[in-house]
Amino acid sequence: MARQIGTALPPDLLAALSQSELSSRLDGALPLVTLDAASRPHPMLCSYLEVLALDPATIRIAIAASGGTAQNLKARQVATLIVVDPERTVYVKCRAVGVPLRVGALERFVLKVEEVIEDAADPSEGPVRITSGISYGPAPSLDDPRVRATLDALRT
User: Fold this and answer.
1) pLDDT digits (tens, 9 = 90+) for 17-55
2) Which of 2, 44, 75, 131 could lock onto 119 through a cystine, CB 3.0 to 4.6 A?
3) CATH number of the 2-122+135-155 domain
4) Which residue in 116, 125, 106 sits closest to 66, CA to CA?
């Protein structure tokens, strides 16, 4: 059952997106949904490398400057970051603010959190639950030049 839990990241989600324990999340993926020119949802998968929560109300993302998601964010400024974890899914509705920063082939956006919705199984749904988040492999190395470039873009 989905319920609004606020207009800022809760402490556990802030910690998960803060990159404080990045090495344990290198194989995790987060869907990011923007709106295309025809107002259709445009999904992409971000890694935890590409997302950095600065505080409960501010998230930075560093994504390919030439991609559709970057173009959609510049044109329509709205996005929903989806965090799928065991036992719950969280939808973080955001608005892009300011001018994106170009860093090489990446563009860094600042997203302001506007609404956070948590969706967890209702007891009436029985024992069925989400058992894991979205993951990929092999996990990249923090020493990889592409990883360093992404992290640098987020922290610039």
Assistant:
1) 999 999 999 999 999 999 999 999 999 999 999 999 999
2) 2
3) 2.30.110.10
4) 106
